[in-house]
Design brief:
The structure is a homodimer.
Chain A lengths: L3 H14 L5 H10 L6 H10 L3 E4 L5 E4 L3 H11 L7 E7 L2 E6 L4 H10 L5 E6 L3 E6 L5 H11 L10
Antiparallel strand pairs in A: 1-2, 3-4, 4-6, 5-6
The first copy, chain A, binds a DNA duplex through α3.
DNA sequence: TAATAAAATGAATAAATATGCAATTATGAT
DNA sequence: ATCATAATTGCATATTTATTCATTTTATTA
């Protein structure tokens, strides 16, 4: 049976696995799967799914379903952040840049400093950002693992 | 002086602070600021900035500038660097991390400091790395454009 | 089940966005 | 400076997406 809900499911599957760049392109794929509908319906479907249109590296635009990642970000900022204000962590140029809830950076940085972790040469905290400077020779993985030791609850949030 | 780069800066400022839902809406704001251009130009500008259109919680669509996190490495460290030691630049968590030829970081950072760029709150230079800290509210695009103003020869290496 | 309300859809079209082309302006090289 | 090349832009229009209105399908209630 080909109900609207089925169609929405298929659409989100398609958008999660392919870079679709127009509704007509999507329409063809949807028709191939046995749904017959028109562009007008797809326009409404995409709105219902809150699908956005964003650019990839090459600058080509494609439809994008709000990802689990984005959803997570939203839930992070509203409710379920961990106790110390941790929001996210990024690695660049062999440093770690940790984002926190506004105003939480210095207390979180202090917690890190007090752990006396060998891997961490020092920290610089702003309002909602901490820069973690690893010692020479310390890899990103080493740093991640150390942070997980300090904050076990980060385990599921720190890996890609 | 109202150059294209100026316009791009203003556009990104607007998009970072307001939820703009159509190019005509943006066109009015841009015109108010003294730029006169047409919708066609804005269409091209948005593409150049890789602006996407995404839904907010209520399901209304608005333009969105890609975040620093989503932006990826934009320079190629294998090609020849420019005269002042610049090698590459990366953006993360709304900061810029600039790599230079070894020992060139502090002199390059000094050049940046002397430009007295509003967008840049400060710099920290190591041996071959400079951390550029933007002022609150300054976007990655603002920073890129400012750096291009300081070092015109970066133009092709700093923007996609 | 029949009657009624709500939701979903297509066809046509409005609205929004992108683009081909020609003109203009900026950039570089000699 | 002068010429050549590349970048930027507006206009007109093509392409893409959203919406109105009428109709059909699905759900709800008596």
């Amino acid at each position: 049976m080909k109900t609207r809900t089925n169609r929405l499911v298929i659409i989100s599957q398609i958008l999660n696995t392919q870079q679709i760049k127009s509704q007509n392109e999507l329409l063809k794929k949807i028709n191939d799967k046995g749904f017959n509908c028109t562009q007008a319906t797809l326009s409404r479907d995409l709105k219902a799914l809150k699908v956005g249109k964003i650019a990839n590296n090459e600058g080509a635009y494609y439809y994008s379903i709000p990802t689990a990642k984005a959803a997570k970000k939203i839930s992070d900022s509203s409710t379920s952040y961990v106790h110390n204000g941790f929001v996210s962590i990024d690695f660049a140029q062999n440093m770690a840049i940790m984002k926190t809830i506004p105003a939480y950076a210095s207390s979180l940085a202090m917690t890190i400093d007090m752990a006396n972790a060998y891997e961490i040469a020092g920290t610089i905290a702003g309002d909602d950002t901490i820069l973690l400077i690893p010692r020479d020779g310390v890899s990103e993985i080493d740093l991640r693992n150390r942070l997980i030791l300090i904050f076990p609850e980060l385990k599921d949030r720190i890996r890609r």
